[in-house]
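> example.struct
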């Protein structure tokens, strides 16, 4: 086995820690880099990278590698956060983790790693990279732990990035990763997995957006056109949202229709031109179900558009693969027609295409057709 100089992105979490250990054990020359991507209120209780760096440094000490602290906050603000705000202001719901992977972790970080003499980089993502001996292309595969697979977030990686990247924990189950961490005495073996967007942390999402996006309150309407409440600004809501609408359920009459239970409201549409938030009652209301979608800004791992045909797709993370027909058009646009209606397909989120365990790439959802 050829040994490489590998730079590992150490986040302070257990997955990247075990990644560094596994590569060191294989005989590679391993260096750790801690990426600081946000610093506006970094000392707050919600988003403190200082604690994570202490954890990452402790991991580096146990594994026996050097660690460097690198600040990518300026790149992050220009290329990820600015786009995040633009999308929310336009009434869409972006996925900044996908943009962060494409623009920071596998661009800025990769460039920096190459500058310091790395041959490869590695992260703690649950995914895999395989060189296809027939096509000569690098393929992005799902992680073996289906419940932790993160290929959805990595679908914008290209051949150049995939050829330089290793995902060691993608070959393991999360339980195995925790077990390895305990066996080698990692200080973060039991550290809770981080969730959500790094620059928001655990703080209430609406409170955070309030700082950056102007509010324009307006009416909340039901499908009959009746005004049933007031929204605080369309940017603060996403399709399928149930909590935080400020409207109660309407009691249905008759025991056969739920015995007087409240049927919950869901955000179904946003009319940006008229500043109206449309809501519906019931999880499976026709306004929430989509047989097809259109997406743009496509990015394909192989560098070429897949042929039209039958595939599977996800329209959000932690969703089961949905069978569909794929067709592409000019200007990096494509459409998906699903065998089963998809729930709350949301503009701004990503539609990611799969051929079995191979992630082909995907694009940003522009629009979806609903049943009514």
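> example.seq
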């Amino acid at each position: 086995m050829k040994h490489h100089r590998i730079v590992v992105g150490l986040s302070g979490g257990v997955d990247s820690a075990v990644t560094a250990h596994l590569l060191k054990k294989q005989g590679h020359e391993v260096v750790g880099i801690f990426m600081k991507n946000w610093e506006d209120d970094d000392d707050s209780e919600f988003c403190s990278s200082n604690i994570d760096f202490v954890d990452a440094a402790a991991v580096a000490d146990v594994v026996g590698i050097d660690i460097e602290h690198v600040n990518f906050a300026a790149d992050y603000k220009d290329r990820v956060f600015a786009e995040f705000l633009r999308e929310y202001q336009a009434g869409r719901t972006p996925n900044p983790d996908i943009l962060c992977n494409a623009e920071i972790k596998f661009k800025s970080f990769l460039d920096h790693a190459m500058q310091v003499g790395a041959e490869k980089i590695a992260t703690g993502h649950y995914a895999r990279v395989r060189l296809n001996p027939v096509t000569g292309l690098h393929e992005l595969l799902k992680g073996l732990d289906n419940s932790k697979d993160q290929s959805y977030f990595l679908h914008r990686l290209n051949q150049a990035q995939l050829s330089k990247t290793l995902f060691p924990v993608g070959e393991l189950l999360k339980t195995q990763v925790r077990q390895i961490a305990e066996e080698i005495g990692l200080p973060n073996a039991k550290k809770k997995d981080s969730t959500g967007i790094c620059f928001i942390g655990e703080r209430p999402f609406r409170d955070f957006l309030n700082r950056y996006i102007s509010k324009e309150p307006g009416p909340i309407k039901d499908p009959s056109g009746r005004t049933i409440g007031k929204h605080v600004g369309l940017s603060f809501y996403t399709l399928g949202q149930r909590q935080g609408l400020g409207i109660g359920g309407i009691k249905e009459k008759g025991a056969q229709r739920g015995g007087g239970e409240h049927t919950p409201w869901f955000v179904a549409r946003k009319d940006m031109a008229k500043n109206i938030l449309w809501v519906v009652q019931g999880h499976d209301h026709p306004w929430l179900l989509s047989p097809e979608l259109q997406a743009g800004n496509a990015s394909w791992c192989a560098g070429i558009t897949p042929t039209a045909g039958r595939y599977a797709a996800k329209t959000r993370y932690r969703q089961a693969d949905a069978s569909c027909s794929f067709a592409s058009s000019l200007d990096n646009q494509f459409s998906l027609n699903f065998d089963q209606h998809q729930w709350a397909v949301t503009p701004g989120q990503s539609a990611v295409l799969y051929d079995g365990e191979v992630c082909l790439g995907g694009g940003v959802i522009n629009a979806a057709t609903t049943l009514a």
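> remarks
The longest strand covers residues 289-300.
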